[in-house]
């Protein structure tokens, strides 16, 4: 929870402000190059800014890999049992290694597709349980209405 807060609120806000305040968002740069330019300009130091971005990017990438590994491992245990963990780890490590050699656009396409595929079981569950959700919602509001009527009288 603390890591999510730190990454999302502190790091993203700091990066966004650096991009906006230095005008780096108007440059022809993109991604890490734009962020490096923003920090180098904002800190008025051509060596400290890029070094901070590099170190931050390294830690962010490493913790993201650890987080996705843990999440995927827990999903494999839930879906297939503990016997599926070792094959999952082997495939995961292989994909990390191959990611170092693939073109960045291809990596983003694969990541988008896989993240989209993760939504499919959830969407199936939502559609299958829609009647339960409607019934529970009706019961909730009926009970709430009865409670408010009892307080008014």
UniProtKB/TrEMBL annotation:
The family database entries (InterPro entries) matched by this protein are listed as: Na/Ala_symport
Q: Where in the cell is it found?
A: Cell membrane
What are the annotated GO cellular component locations? plasma membrane
Predominant subcellular localization, coarse grouping: membrane
Entries under PANTHER family matching the protein: AGSS FAMILY TRANSPORTER, SODIUM-ALANINE, TRANSCRIPTIONAL REGULATOR, LRP FAMILY
- Indicate the family of this protein: Belongs to the alanine or glycine:cation symporter (AGCS) (TC 2.A.25) family.
Query: Per its record, how is this protein called by name?
Result: Alanine or glycine:cation symporter, AGCS family protein
Organism of provenance: Vibrio cholerae
